[in-house]
Amino acid sequence: MDTPSTPPAVVIEAFAITGEPVLLRGGRGGTWRAGSVILKLVDFADETNWRADILDALPDSEHFRIARPVRTVDGAWIAEGWEACRVVDGATDVSRPDDVLRAGIDFHRAIASVPRPDFLDVRQDPWSTGDRAAWEEIPFQLDPAADPLTQPLSRARRPVDLPSQAVHGDLPGNVLFAAGMPPAIIDWPVYWRPPTWALAIAVVDALCWYDATPDLAERWAYLPAWGQMLVRALMYRIATDEAASGPSCWTTSRLNAYQPTVDLAVMIARTTNGGGRDGCGSPR
Predict the structure, then answer these.
(1) Contact present, 84 and 70 (Cβ < 8 Å)
(2) Where does the pLDDT of residue 284 fall: very low under 50, low under 70, confident under 90, or very high at 90 and above?
(3) 250, burial (CB in 10 Å: exposed 0-12, middle 13-18, buried 19+)
(4) Between residues 19 and 146, which one has the greater pLDDT?
(5) pLDDT digits (tens, 9 = 90+) for 76-120
(6) What does pTM read for this prediction?
(7) Helix axes 226-245 and 252-271, enclosed angle (nearest 10)
(8) Given the DSSP bridges, would you call strands 190-193 and 175-176 parallel, antiparallel or unpaired?
(9) Where are the alpha helices (DSSP H) in 72-178?
(10) Is 18 found in the same domain as 71?
(11) Total number of domains constituting the chain
């Protein structure tokens, strides 16, 4: 495993940071804390600059907190391939998926009027590949080893007519909870999809990886086109897995991790049409 890059002195100086950088756990191993600032390597500069502009201007909310971006002393958002944000108190808690979804709803309401960013048309990474495959912008064609997952999902997918907006595509590990404070939203990967799809990703992640039970999906089934959002959320995650790791990712254990949730999503897609109009609210 490669040793994570330490933020160089020129980056520390650019963001006027005091304190020695300390490597943090989680993420992809490239996030550091130095004093009251978090530093991480930039994946895609256009996205970093767009996201920082939006978060910098976003008003404070009583419903959620955000990790405010930090400018360099020259007023830029990036220094030598690094970006920075303020530390926010709290820790992830994947045993609270309903609270994660409520935080996502509040965040998506706050950014509902944000215009679509142009960088989405050119961003190329495994997650963008999975997103495009889920939404029929590229074929959902994976290695035959994944057929037990992909075939039922492909048969269950139907057209949907829901408005899209900027959404957070990876909520479960990026909502922090702290006593007496609203949840904090961090590490925002930007997509332009119906907000219910972002909630569905959080649900399928909880079901596949965090020991959630099927009633989680059932509690949120009043959301519009819920079954179709679950189907597309699974397509997104499954296509991303293969794009990131190759066909060798389809071990028996990985197929078994997905299969019950695939079966559940297909069942919900066949038996419900969703409800509501805007994808917002709390479970009934």
Answers:
(1) yes
(2) very low
(3) buried
(4) 146
(5) 999 999 999 999 999 999 999 999 999 999 999 999 999 999 999
(6) 0.93
(7) 160
(8) unpaired
(9) 97-110, 126-134, 147-156
(10) yes
(11) 2
